[in-house]
Amino acid sequence: GNHDGWVKEYTELRPETAEDYDLMREYAVGGFEVLPENYKYKLGKLIVFHNLPKLSGDFHTKATLSRMGCNCLYNHFHDFQSYSYQQYGGKRSATSGGCLCRLDMDYLEGNPNRWTHGLNVIYVNKRTGYFTKYFIEINNGNTVWIGKFYSGRKV
Asked: Quick one: which of 35, 33, 83, 38 has its CA closest to 57?
C-alpha cells in the first residue's frame, strides 16, 4: 500500500534513521513477499490490491467495480464496504476490507470516520478460480471466527 511510502519519505528527510526503519529487512525476516505499490495480485477470479489512484468518496466500491469491471478486494479506505452487480457473464463485486491500524490517528484531528477494524479470509477453489470471501469485523479488540472467540485485549 501507500503506508510504506511514509517511512521512505521520513528516512529520506532523516538519513540517520534509515538503518532503524529498514522495512524490506523486517519484511524479509517475517517471511513476507514485498510487491510494488498498487500491484494487482490475482487470486483465482479475484484481484487483490491496495487502491486505485484518484478514487474516493462514500461509494468507492461502486466506482472501483465500474473502473475495474472484475471481482476485487482492496483496503485503502480502511472501511468495510461492498458493492456487487449481476450482469451477463456473472456476478462481480468490489469490497473494501477494513484495517488493523488505530482508528484515532492524529491527522484525523478527532473527526468521525468510517474506519473499521477487520480482516478478510478468502477461500479459492484452485481448479475453478471461484472464491468466497469473509470479512471478520473486530470490535474492541475482539472477534469470533468459526465459533471461536479471539481477543487482542487482556481479559
From this structure: 83
